Q: What sequence folds into this?
């Protein structure tokens, strides 16, 4: 199936495209994502996005006169499988770069493989540990969990909240965001007076939420986590009629979360998200409007499914990679790494990316929008 290239992607590739022909070589890029398993609501749109955009690029002539070949594996969210597939991509498939690591756990498993092989790796996961400290060949596209904490606490401070409860997932992402939030919460004049956790397989968080509800002085609740856990927290929170403002993380910033939690239970929840979730609400002069609108149309036309933040992470990773190959002028891993690190002003679905030797993310807090769920959809509140 052929797909029409998005306007934004076409613009970024224009200088590097040649004409497809019989003698074209391939630029082989690898991916390992959680297309199935507990993180499939993240990994499935990532896989679909990578396949879609590679088809678009090749239909338009390729990159540097060569076609892209995507070698993609489904790690099911298992870090051991992710490490195995990353090794296979490097040693057997001989890729020039790797995109993936849907979760923090799988990303952390891929990093040593990519670093040892000196192959650029662009992670699609949120934890700050992925890029802090900076590692030469490792980059990422989602905002960090620390940035999410800062965005949430800034909103809480504006509302005058000084005492909060936290209920965090014990998975890699939840544990990392919990740690990062505790590290900076005092900077906002906020105290965590109740601190609960839940496991990835837990099906009822009523006891933890009851403890928070019964803690004196709690004014709001924050739930660092991803996957089904936050949806269960949200349903239990509604069932208990906790009656306090509930904040979620960017790890659930998708329509899938609203579907899992239920629109009525999710009503009023706030979280930091990307422009992609509110594409139709962006001002005409917003630099991201054209990019997110084009990707949204392309993805939804091709798949028949709503676009998600997580597919957007893969969109931006591939755009960053292709832009770097174009500027490097060759598909050499070392040259690509240098070019990625010099990315400047690249407008993506997640924000405008400007990387440096000390910053392998290239986003600041302005890339986050504070969103609220109202009547089953997203609204911009900041």
A:
């Amino acid at each position: 199936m052929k797909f029409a290239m998005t306007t934004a992607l076409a613009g970024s590739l224009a200088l590097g495209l040649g004409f497809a022909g019989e003698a074209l070589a391939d630029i082989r890029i690898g991916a390992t994502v959680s297309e199935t398993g507990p993180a499939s609501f993240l990994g499935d749109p990532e896989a679909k996005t990578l396949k879609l955009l590679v088809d678009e690029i090749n239909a338009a002539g390729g990159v540097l006169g060569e076609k892209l070949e995507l070698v993609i594996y489904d790690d099911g969210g298992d870090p051991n499988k992710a490490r195995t597939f990353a090794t296979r991509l490097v040693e057997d498939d001989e890729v020039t770069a790797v995109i993936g690591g849907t979760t923090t756990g799988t990303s952390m498993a891929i990093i040593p493989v990519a670093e040892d092989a000196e192959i650029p790796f662009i992670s699609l996961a949120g934890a700050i540990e992925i890029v802090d400290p900076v590692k030469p060949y490792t980059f990422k596209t989602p905002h960090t969990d620390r940035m999410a904490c800062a965005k949430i606490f800034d909103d809480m401070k504006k509302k005058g909240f000084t005492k909060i409860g936290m209920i965090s997932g014990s998975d890699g992402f939840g544990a990392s965001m919990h740690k990062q939030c505790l590290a900076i919460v005092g900077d906002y004049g906020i105290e965590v007076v109740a601190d609960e956790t839940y496991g990835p397989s837990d099906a009822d968080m009523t006891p933890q939420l009851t403890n928070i509800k019964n803690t004196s002085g709690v004014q709001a609740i924050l739930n660092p986590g991803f996957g089904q856990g936050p949806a269960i927290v949200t349903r239990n929170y509604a069932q208990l009629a906790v009656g306090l403002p509930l904040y979620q993380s960017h790890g659930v910033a998708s329509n899938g979360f609203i579907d899992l939690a239920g629109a009525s239970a999710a009503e009023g929840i706030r979280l930091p998200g990307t422009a992609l979730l509110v594409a139709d609400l962006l001002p005409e002069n917003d630099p991201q409007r054209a990019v997110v609108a084009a990707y949204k149309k392309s993805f939804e036309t091709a798949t028949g499914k709503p676009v998600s933040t997580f597919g957007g992470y893969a969109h931006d990773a591939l755009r960053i990679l292709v832009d770097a190959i174009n500027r490097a002028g060759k598909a050499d891993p070392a040259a690509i790494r240098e070019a990625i690190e010099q990315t400047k002003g690249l407008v993506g679905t997640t924000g405008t990316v400007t990387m440096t030797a000390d910053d392998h993310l290239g986003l600041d807090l302005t890339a986050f929008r504070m969103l609220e769920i109202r009547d089953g959809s997203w609204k911009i509140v900041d």
